[in-house]
Amino acid sequence: MSLIKEVSRYLKKHKEIENELGVFQIKKDEIPDGGTSLIKVATCNNENYVIKFLLQNINLNETREYKRFSQAYHIVSDLKSDVILPQIGLYSLEIQEGVVIPYTVMPKAYGTLKDFKENNEITFEIFESIFYRMVYLIKKIHNHEIIHRDLKPENIFLLDGTIESMVLGDFDIAKFDDELYLKLHKTEKKERLANYLYSAPEQKSNKKMKK
């Protein structure tokens, strides 16, 4: 059985998970999953959260994906920047003997830029607001020597539904400056370095750009 089915079956049976933050009741509401993750909405003390499960078994060894996952969590949570979706905790869940799944907890945002685009008419004024907010967000993380490398509407969150509350999330494949941050994982050539649909033309080409 695949890990996503095993985790889903565990959550359907137990309906809650507990850690030092409290008891999280898993809701039926779901957010579209990433390629290597399962994402669930949960409530704790009457507050809504999102729990992101990395579909990797770390019982015997820490995988390459987990090292990236852990590195992104620690760096992003330590920054506490107003342009990054807050990270509250990194934990692990034993869903059965010998199978341990890591997960992070974060506050539930109002929605994503993809949701906003699908539910609103994008006028020039709105486009302009989104553009300038994005420039601000990217400039801020670049000032921290961080390159996101997976920018797309699904990874841009609106905390309260307004353009002014837009922040960036999902830093799992981001590039962090080695001199400023603890490096848990070294990027290899075969790994994904960007989102193809939202990459610049020169990133998609194997040809070197002329100076």
Can you walk through the features of this model?
- This protein is an alpha+beta fold and 211 residues long.
- It has 2 domains: 3-107, Phosphorylase Kinase, domain 1; 111-204, Transferase(Phosphotransferase), domain 1 (Orthogonal Bundle).
- The protein is 28% helix and 27% strand.
- The protein has 5 helices and 11 strands.
- The chain has helices at residues 3-14, 64-79, 113-119, 124-143, 201-204, and strands spanning 16-19, 22-30, 37-44, 47-54, 89-96, 99-107, 111-112, 146-147, 156-158, 166-168, 175-176.
- The strands form 3 sheets. The chain has a 6-stranded antiparallel sheet with strand order 1-2-3-4-6-5. The chain has a 3-stranded antiparallel sheet with strand order 7-9-10. A two-stranded antiparallel sheet has the order 8-11.
- The longest helix is centred in the middle third of the chain and has 20 residues, at 124-143.
- It is globular, with a radius of gyration of 18 Å.
- The N and C termini lie far apart (51 Å).
Give a quick rundown of the structure:
The protein is an alpha+beta fold and 211 residues long. It has helices spanning 3-14, 64-79, 113-119, 124-143, 201-204; strands spanning 16-19, 22-30, 37-44, 47-54, 89-96, 99-107, 111-112, 146-147, 156-158, 166-168, 175-176.
Topology:
Blueprint: H1 3-14, E1 16-19, E2 22-30, E3 37-44, E4 47-54, H2 64-79, E5 89-96, E6 99-107, E7 111-112, H3 113-119, H4 124-143, E8 146-147, E9 156-158, E10 166-168, E11 175-176, H5 201-204
Antiparallel strand pairs: 1-2, 2-3, 3-4, 4-6, 5-6, 7-9, 8-11, 9-10
